[in-house]
Amino acid sequence: MGRQLVIKMTQETYLTGITTTGTPHIGNYVGAIRPSVASSRDENRKNFYFLADYHSLAKAEDPDRIHRSGLEVAATWLACGLDTENAFFYRQSDIPEIMELTWILNSVTAKGLMNRAHSYKSQVQINEIGGSKDPDKGVVMALYNYPILMAADILMFKATKVPVGRDQKQHMEMTRDIAQRFNHRYGDILVIPDAEIDKNTAVLGGLDGRKMSKSYNNIIPLFADEKRLRKLVMKIKTNSLEPGTPKDTDGSTLFEIYKAFATDTEIQTIEERYADGIGWGEMKHVLFDYINDHIKPARDEYNRLIADPAVVEQELLQGAERARELSVPYIEEIRRAVGIRKLSPM
Ligand code: TRP
């Protein structure tokens, strides 16, 4: 009797969220949006992409800004070509089961674990440096519990791979820790996810050369109009080498951004031009033209979507409806496991 070969197809489930606190910039595009769009088009993967709007409350943002940011982030994803047939695309706040799971996870999360969270500790450090008597000054519970909500986002949909930036590594370790404690106590119910921190994904520098980030106020919005985009590119910091002097591509923010968009042969050409001493003014024009051409079709689509939020809303509601087909029965199973269930069969 021939041995039967069992081929087990293990399908990875990718999930990631973007906090709705700002306007998407080219660093977000290269680091998170572009890879998730590519993933959404891969039929061998299950994909979940969502707006982490409840997370945005941890930072005491202006309500109008949070609301607007939700539209901008969603429209960006759609304009960049997210495949919402193959991927679940939704807003965290439309999935009430995530909130229920958050509370349940609170019950297995050690307070000591949360004490160690970088996001919380950095606020305490700011207070200490500032000489405040209260180390917890300005710390709301939403900041303190932020990692638990993130764990619920991930565990709710049995994600196996979570593509995140290096800054989220600790949150991922906490998610695994929380899930393991839950399973230890209640049985094998939650799926333990892996972080996927891609070393090849570029972390772009901003206008001042530091990492492009809203908190440094050095961003280039992905869909800035042409005039503004040109103005911002012209502001990117360079050294003071004259045209004609050979230049290093290493440490050049202009080059780094160009590289994140261009093809290998195009990059090679620019490397040669650096060696030949391209002037910074010239390089800024090259970069502007390149990005502008590259994003123009998506920018037109983005502007159409921003002008018609009902289309975006419709996509999100449909996505939530599909996602809840999974979250509703799963939370039922989780609730049952922890003892929250009906007193008698109905
Ligand atoms: N904390 C993430 C960030 O700031 C955003 C986020 C919220 C997230 N929930 C998530 C990322 C779940 C991955 C998975 O970037």
Give me the strand/helix succession: EHEHEHHHHHEHEHHHHH
CATH class of the largest domain: Alpha Beta
Return the structural class.
Answer: mainly alpha
Number of strands: 5
Q: Mean pLDDT, as a whole number? A: 94
Tell me the Rg in angstroms. Answer: 23 Å
Instruction: State the helicity in percent bands.
Output: 40-55%
Fourth-tier CATH superfamily name of the largest domain: HUPs
The helix count comes to 13
**Weakly predicted, low-confidence segments:** none
Sheet of most strands: 3 strands, parallel
Biggest sheet strand order reads 1-2-3
Instruction: Spell out which ligands are present.
Output: tryptophan
Indicate how many domains the architecture comprises: 2
Keywords:
346 residues, mainly alpha, Rossmann fold, Tyrosyl-Transfer RNA Synthetase, 2 domains, three-stranded parallel beta sheet, two-stranded parallel sheet, globular, binds tryptophan
